[in-house]
Design goal:
Largest interface: A-B, 36 and 45 residues
CATH topology of chain A: Rossmann fold
Structural class of chain A: alpha/beta
CATH topology of chain B: Rossmann fold
Distance between the termini of chain A: 95 Å
CATH class of chain B: Alpha Beta
Oligomer: heterodimer
Number of helices of chain B: 6
Order of helices and strands of chain B: EHEEEHEEHHEHEEEH
Radius of gyration of chain A: 23 Å
Structural class of chain B: alpha/beta
Number of helices of chain A: 10
Distance between the termini of chain B: 11 Å
Number of strands of chain A: 10
CATH architecture of chain A: 3-Layer(aba) Sandwich
Shape of chain B: globular
CATH class of chain A: Alpha Beta
Number of domains of chain B: 1
Chain lengths: 346, 233
Amino acid sequence: MNPYENLPEKSFWKPSVASKSLFDITGLWDPAFNILPNHRIVTFGSCFAQHIGHALTARGFRWLSTEKPPRGLSAKHAKLFNYNVFSARTGNIYTASLLKQWASWALTDAPVPDEIWEQQGRFYDPFRPQIEPNGFASAEELRLSRAQTIAAFRESIKQAHVFVFTLGLTESWVNAQAGHEYPMCPGTVAGDFDAQRHLFKKQQFNDIFKSLSDAIEIMRESNKNLKFLLTVSPVPLTATNSGNHVVVATMESKSILRAVAGQMTTRWRHVDYFPSYEMINSPAFKGVFFEPNLRSVNPYGVNFVMNSFFDALTHKFGEFKPITPRFSRMNSDTVCEEALLEAFGQ
Amino acid sequence: MTTICIIGNSHVGSLKMAWDNISPRYPTMDITFFAQRGYGLKDLRIEQQSLLPTSEVLASALQFTSGGKTGIDTRLYDVFLIYGLFLTPYFQADKPFYSQAVLQHALYDHVEGSLSFKVLKQLRSITDKPIFAGHDPLLIPRGEPANDSPAAYLEAINTLNTLFYQPLDAEVIAQPLDTIVYGRHTHPDFSKNSKRLAVGRKTDLESQPDHNKGHMNDEFGELWLKQFFAKIT
């Protein structure tokens, strides 16, 4: 008799992986709490988090956007201006420390830095450098837009039942004097790089664990019932400044993030981890969910991950009834016709 | 005599009913209507200085509403009004905040997708005479909305004109301010007492249904035309 003798099939590689088609590998996630379609769910983080928001909406879950595009803006232009990408227009929040920074600006007295980058008469937000494709018309417009996003981020936390956050990077760039962090290295997308002012920081497990813990605590102070679902982006690094080969840097970075996410679930019952990273990156899936560049996740991978997400919830908590739109606009054409004929038919 | 050509869809109905009532008071105005329901006017094509129907259905509607004309010959009119045709009102409020670029793209999408703007571009390509546009009326309110001023509505009219209509030497006209309540709705009285067309159905001559919050009556049309006449004279 030994502890392994009575373990379920999923505990063993051969029956749960080696003997199965990769598409039949199931049960990777055992949800810690239920997520219902009427729960307000917000999504932030690295690029991969976008897919979660879209999939939630498509499945009839209540993905919450607190910074909506103006009426009339087409889906194409909404995407161009980064509306409905995340629940507020924060752009990518790649690191746990950036999440803490946004949470502090939105929910504490922490001052928002007034740093603005000007380039050829346009103004770029160092904390959302790609949020407007051609920057802002003025510094004042940028400040108002940033304030709007901070307010929307605050509102998203206050209203949400579930906060989904995708951890993306461990490498970061910070302002040497003020200490604030940039999502992108200055000078890459916008701004000018200054080696004296812009410092590279390779965050380690303890840094990330503390930042994420602080961020969660700040958010829970405003919404004591808020639950967190962490994921780790399966997308490899585009580039590394660590000095290591990008493959090695990617593996190190993802391993740290994965370990932090696991540790968080051990620490708090209101934090769960969804293994989208494993579903894309594990050798069990043979890399089939990557595009030919071996970096971007293809639509099959996204579908597989999201199907697994909903299947796991259903398996544990039962079928759910998707929410339906509260109302649909009536087609007024039938009335139109009568109105017209009335006028001319007398 | 000022000859006016009004082109539009079902919303033209309120102007036509008003014109039937008030035309004796405006002997120097002559109006010809060209209307077809819904998106029917998408089937107009340009031929020399005219807009002509490309479908039998539209040809029939134009003939019916204009009193016998088979197409819109721009040489016959002094002023054009494009009315309704899914140019819906827009509101440009201070909050939530949007950048200029975002608002401009939203207004572009809003206008460019409308049949009204398509007809405007067609018209402008064949005539340099004055062209005006009237949007679909503001909806009547549901319940008791907040009592806003019409500033956001008027601001959007200004921006539409600056960005999209002035470059085409055209102008969007706001609906009369005395028809507006709560800053962004038409007073409910202006949608009352319009009757369904007598077409041999049980519903003939009944009032329009309550859910019709977008179509206005002849009183509304009269106020609209009075304002329009004042503008063009």
